[in-house]
């Protein structure tokens, strides 16, 4: 080090500002160009699914089903002890991947085929996660982004068993924007007629499997849908927006770097998609007798949720069928999370086993 250099006060505000301008940034994350179809990415971060992580997630998203909190209720549902909640397992499986897949920025657009082949999963399980690039595509509407879909699998690090798997799609920034057709048609699109809603909305009498089946029977052959809203709402705060994603090692700047996000379309940090959907699902589950979660499909994130927004939920019951067990039947739902302005922020279908009244 030279004498002149030792005399520089690098913390002098003006000097430091000039130094920052000249310094290269050690970048994090990958641009769109880094992903090629068929690539397999083994994610370095791992996570031990702890009781603390599980309970923090479930409590803050209002998933208060006793089977995940009390041993007697867990045993009554066929678990050895309170298991890891599927929403936390899903969020942790995704959180670990962000550093490699989406830390560069962009938007979590949607996910499908969320399944839990290895559940129940218990506290202390170590998660190891890998993702395979399923497809890469140009965004015709946004030249600065590409669209990438990955198949992700979260495995038990000890046994290699797949515990959670899904296909997820993000918009990912390109290093170099490309020319696109702008995504729009030159012709003026005619506004489609607004589809008429059913004239009657049926609400199930209770939360048992039979209540859902009877409600569908009541709606059958009539201009009716089994559709209702849930009373609870959850306003987004520091814990839900920044705390929960960081606890899953989700390094997306969207959730915790308010400085960068001030210049983004949302103008603020945004809630992790898995927090939004888990909160809406928590509201829905509070009005049903859930037995097991089976899977989730066609999940879409429609717009941002930011601190101060309140997440509510609306449910449509699509099907109710007998399952392979005496205690429960299988119900397929569509859940829509919406904000305080009644705007949908998330939608997706869910298949769950719902306890029978008689069991
Ligand atoms: C994890 C994680 C991050 C997060 O959790 S971020 C929080 C969750 N996500 C969000 O808050 C995003 C909410 N969505 C939006 O704000 C808007 O949808 C968005 C992303 C601004 C796009 O708005 P547009 O009006 O431009 O929407 P389009 O419907 O035209 O979509 C743009 C293009 O994307 C394609 N696309 C949309 N959804 C899907 C999908 N599920 N699968 C495949 N492709 C999809 C759509 O077709 C459009 O394609 P073009 O070719 O026409 O551009 C983390 O960091 O990982």
TrEMBL record:
Pfam families: MC_hydratase. GO terms for molecular function: lyase activity. It comes from the Archaea. Residues 174-205 are annotated as: Disordered. NCBIfam families: methfumCoahyd_Halo. This is MaoC domain-containing protein dehydratase. The lineage of its organism: Archaea, Methanobacteriati, Methanobacteriota, Stenosarchaea group, Halobacteria.
């Amino acid at each position: 080090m030279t004498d002149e250099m030792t005399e520089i006060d690098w913390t002098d505000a003006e000097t430091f500002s000039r130094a920052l301008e000249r310094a290269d940034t050690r970048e994090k994350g990958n641009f769109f160009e880094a992903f090629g179809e068929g690539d397999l990415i083994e994610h370095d971060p791992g996570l031990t699914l702890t009781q603390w992580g599980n309970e923090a997630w479930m409590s803050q998203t209002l998933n208060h089903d006793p089977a995940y909190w009390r041993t007697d209720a867990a045993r009554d549902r066929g678990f050895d002890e309170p298991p890891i909640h599927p929403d936390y397992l899903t969020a942790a499986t995704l959180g670990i991947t962000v550093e490699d897949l989406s830390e560069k920025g962009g938007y979590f657009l949607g996910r499908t085929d969320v399944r839990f082949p290895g559940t129940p999963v218990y506290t202390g399980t170590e998660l190891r996660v890998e993702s395979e690039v399923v497809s890469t595509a140009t965004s015709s509407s946004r030249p600065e982004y590409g669209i990438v879909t990955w198949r992700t699998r979260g495995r038990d690090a000890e046994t290699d068993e797949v515990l959670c798997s899904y296909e997820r799609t993000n918009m990912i920034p390109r290093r170099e924007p490309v020319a696109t057709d702008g995504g729009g048609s030159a012709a003026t699109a005619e506004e489609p007629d607004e589809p008429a809603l059913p004239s009657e909305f049926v609400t199930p009498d209770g939360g048992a499997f039979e209540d859902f089946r009877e409600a569908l029977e009541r709606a059958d052959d009539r201009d009716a849908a089994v559709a209702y809203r849930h009373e609870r709402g959850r306003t987004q705060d520091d814990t839900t927006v920044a705390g929960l994603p960081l606890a899953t090692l989700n390094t997306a700047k969207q959730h915790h770097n308010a400085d960068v996000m001030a210049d983004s379309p949302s103008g603020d940090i945004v809630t992790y998609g898995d927090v939004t959907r888990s909160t809406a699902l928590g509201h829905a589950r509070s009005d049903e007798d859930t037995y097991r979660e089976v899977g989730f499909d066609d999940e879409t994130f429609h717009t941002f949720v930011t601190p101060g927004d309140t997440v509510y939920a609306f449910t449509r019951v699509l099907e109710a069928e007998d399952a392979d067990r005496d205690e429960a039947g299988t119900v397929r739902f569509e859940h829509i999370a919406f904000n305080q302005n009644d705007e949908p922020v998330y939608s997706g279908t869910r298949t769950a086993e719902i306890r029978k009244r008689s069991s």
